[in-house]
């Protein structure tokens, strides 16, 4: 099996397996006052400290959630509600159309049910938001006082384009606006420092960095006001309720610590492997089109993602044919009832919708090897020929 | 794999026969409903989940192919325009001809597959010289050879029907034995793209409700209706015309004329048809004679009628002289020709001649 879908989820890091396994043998609710509870609480808090350290944050910034989607929902809805409650004029939300569906669908929901109006900040052909474009979007119409929040992902999950987060934060803060960033794909692959970034809120998740599925965190500046989504015990700063998943949190912290420890070396290795993949794919299929930024530097692209369009080939057909040979990848775009839609990211970048259906994403991770790339490149030309003859239905 | 029991068992049997099998669910609706309503339909998200689950149990890859646009153009639009023209189409035949054994088969062949396997109840008999024949299924209650009568030899050569030798009850038992959760799922009925089964309303929404006259065979107006397409030839109920001739005898729909929006009614004798002619002939194998005796079936579960058939190759017209009159035969229906259990081919009925008509006059469209 050749696994080239690490951006979907990546194998557990051995450190995470050890941490999770150790905690699964114990009993204890971190909110109980007795010895077992205190022991669990200690694990949670040590994990919080470790995660905060790996993200350049303070432990008090960390709000554990049930994953990236929950953290994105909490940030976007929570900031919107709190900001609008403080000033009813604040109903605009600024975001680019390349956001992950966890943010995108939340925005659509707020527009449909909560009176939000979404102002889409344009991206360039590489999928990048320019600070000047954000500034212009903020000033548009009724101006900054009508804005509830800004949200821009740190790095894109489909094409791998990295955003100029610090510059975007500076623009938002110049207008006194809170800004959230979904850093799910960036964390573990790029230096992500929450405090240095100046972000008001930031989403991370465990299973993209070798931690378990089902746990994530919202990093939240202590000044940020946020209306909760879940009501109950108020376990996490009264912002998030629900019994904390001690084993998963321990696994998350172990994976985060390992990812940051190994990051420089691993990012370099992955970037080299990705460059090999890009060069060999373009060599094997000359009319393939690399998506995203042609600059392959760490400030331009994620090290582990290579996304292509193969003209005339349905992405689904390519996926089926590669899968039949044990090569696993993704079309990169989300499904609706299992039916592939042309990627909203590519469409936002100005890729024609016909070509946007021809996409395939290869994403590398800790277990990826040169052999994986070779296996792919060997299989690809025949697969592309076949998919092309099946055409676009 | 529709998400039903038949395609699931067909896939499992194909795997056991040694084929490399990939499950494909067709997304045929642009806006699939989340859940089934009743037993109908095969296009909901729940059905695709059932299909995926069956594929998991069988242990085969599973994909959803989006053929909504093709299905809409080739089957749904065709269905509506056929009704608008006063004909009564069977969309299942159209789907087999244009979607399952054309769009799906072509894509599959291009991707390197060899055949399309479905859960239809029909048998393919392969002779030692390689020639393949399409035959009725062993289970007479489930036989679906009629809806496959539109397949030509090339399509048949790439078709697998693993259920043709089985009884439906055995297929259900087998699904249960194999741990397929769909074993108890009710059979689908009617037309899959009309989720609530209300064909009349479906057509009214697309073709409108224009009031028109109901006349008898002398042309006298005996009632009125709201949309001629809402009627089927042979229909008796729902005419609301009382007893127009005062003879106490029921009246049936004889003819539907969309141009004048007129529905013609008459007696059961007037309904009887002795000759049908059809266009768009499709042959399941080589046809060596231009005149032959065979059985003609004109509805999915209709009785086969012995007939003398003439095939005008140049005009592409098939004419069948029925040995005994048939009732409720409408243009647009498909006449499938059988030699015993073997399907010879089919044609779409374009005209009928009634027993009461003078030779040479025809109800044509």
Short description:
Chain A: Its cofactor is pyridoxal 5'-phosphate. The complex is a heterodimer of chains A (about 400) and B (about 375). With about 400 residues, chain A is of the alpha/beta class.
CATH class of the largest domain in chain A: Alpha Beta
Order of helices and strands of chain A: EHHEHEHEHEHEHEEHEEHEEEHHEH
The averaged pLDDT of chain A comes out at 96
The helix fraction of chain A, in percent, is 40-55%
Helix and strand arrangement:
The complex is a heterodimer of chains A (393) and B (365).
Chain A: E1 2-3, H1 14-24, H2 35-54, E2 62-65, H3 68-86, E3 92-95, H4 101-113, E4 117-120, H5 131-139, E5 147-151, H6 165-174, E6 179-182, H7 194-197, E7 201-205, E8 216-220, H8 246-284, E9 289-290, E10 305-309, H9 315-324, E11 327-328, E12 335-336, E13 339-340, H10 344-348, H11 353-356, E14 359-363, H12 370-390
Parallel strand pairs in A: 1-11, 3-4, 3-5, 5-6, 6-7
Antiparallel strand pairs in A: 2-8, 7-8, 9-10, 10-14, 12-13
Helix pairs in contact in A: 1-8, 2-8, 3-4, 5-6, 8-12, 9-12
Chain B: H1 5-16, E1 23-27, H2 45-58, E2 62-66, H3 68-84, H4 91-110, E3 116-117, E4 122-126, E5 132-136, H5 153-157, E6 159-160, H6 168-177, H7 199-207, E7 211-215, E8 221-226, E9 252-257, E10 262-266, H8 268-271, E11 273-283, E12 291-297, E13 305-312, E14 317-326, E15 334-339, E16 342-354, E17 363-364
Parallel strand pairs in B: 1-2, 3-6, 7-10
Antiparallel strand pairs in B: 4-5, 7-8, 9-10, 11-14, 11-16, 12-13, 12-15, 13-14, 15-16, 16-17
Domain Aminotransferase class V (chain A): 2-376
InterPro entries (chain A): Aminotrans_V_dom, Aminotrans_V_PyrdxlP_BS, Cysteine_dSase, PyrdxlP-dep_Trfase, PyrdxlP-dep_Trfase_major, PyrdxlP-dep_Trfase_small
Enzyme class (chain A): transferase
